[in-house]
Design brief:
Distance between the termini: 43 Å
Mean pLDDT: 81
Shape: globular
Radius of gyration: 20 Å
Structural class: mainly alpha
Largest sheet: 2 strands, antiparallel
Oligomer: single chain
Number of helices: 12
Length: 283
């Protein structure tokens, strides 16, 4: 028991340290400001446009939140895993007792902290920009958004971890997750009613967590009347929990095994070859 608690403590501390490093990295901060500046600008220009009596910005905001959660699980995890393998972090972690487990906990802590930060950066200014948002959101909605965030990250991170374990570089990890994320986003109807798509696409989309992330985010922020545009005319909260929970359980089973397999095949000679390749290319 003491060993397990020590592993959790080390993982949490490591995740917190990495989060503080992120906040001190000028390049990361500039990227965050640009990305969310674009999102908020889009909402600003949509604030005066109405669709069926509802502000278009109020319908777009949950879509942005859902995609942001999925992107954190897909892209951030894949690129970070590949980067940690390149610079030897994973190689050093496997040499320590329970090193892989504490590394996995640190990844979970890091992704939750950054995702909460992203949601606050997007939500707080939106309270001033998006018409009707202040009247729509409640404490129950905040609780719903909290479990949606946790389940959404646990459900999507296994995709990123699996790809991050396969690719040879951090750049490839980001690129390899971008395409499936774009395809799943397009098929899930996050930015438009999924009823406009073919029936078989609707069925396939409901297998993956991206659709349920969008539906869950809309159930929190969109007005109740918007549920009429959904497949069953309702928010299907129970189904959202069950599907995301199922993917989360699959992830908790698969990810530690993927990390251990990735660490076992990472040798000192392979890491040196990767460093030589990076030095030759200059990146």
């Amino acid at each position: 028991m003491n060993g397990m608690l020590s592993t959790i403590r080390l993982g949490v501390e490591r995740g917190w340290i990495e989060y503080k490093i992120l906040l001190r990295d000028p390049q990361s901060l500039v990227w965050i400001v640009i990305m969310f500046g674009i999102f908020l600008t889009v909402l600003w220009f949509q604030r005066g446009v109405e669709l069926n009596g509802v502000s278009l910005a109020l319908l777009t905001l949950p879509s942005l939140l859902g995609v942001q959660i999925a992107s954190s699980g897909f892209n951030d995890v894949a690129s970070q895993l590949a980067f940690d393998r390149e610079d030897g972090t994973l190689f050093r972690a496997k040499a320590l007792p329970r090193g892989i487990s504490s590394y996995f906990i640190a990844r979970v802590v890091m992704i939750i902290l950054t995702s909460v930060m992203y949601l606050l950066i997007l939500l707080i200014p939106s309270l001033l920009i998006v018409p009707g948002l202040v009247d729509t959101i409640s404490f129950t909605d905040i609780f719903t958004m909290a479990w949606l965030l946790v389940l959404g990250l646990l459900a999507t991170a296994p995709f990123g971890a699996t790809i991050g374990a396969i690719v040879k570089s951090s750049g490839a990890g980001w690129g390899m997750t971008l395409l499936p994320l774009v395809v799943l986003t397009a098929a899930s109807g996050i930015f438009y009613p999924i009823t406009a798509l073919a029936g078989w696409i609707q069925v396939v989309a409901q297998v993956f967590p991206v659709y349920w992330l969008g539906l869950g985010a809309r159930s929190v922020l969109a007005p109740e009347s918007a549920a009429a545009m959904e497949l069953t005319g309702s928010w299907r909260t129970t189904e959202t929990i069950l599907v995301l929970l199922a993917w989360s359980i699959v992830g908790l089973i698969i990810v530690p095994r993927v990390l251990r397999k990735m660490a076992r095949r990472t040798s000192g000679s392979e890491m040196q070859a990767t460093r030589d390749r990076i030095m030759q290319r200059g990146y």
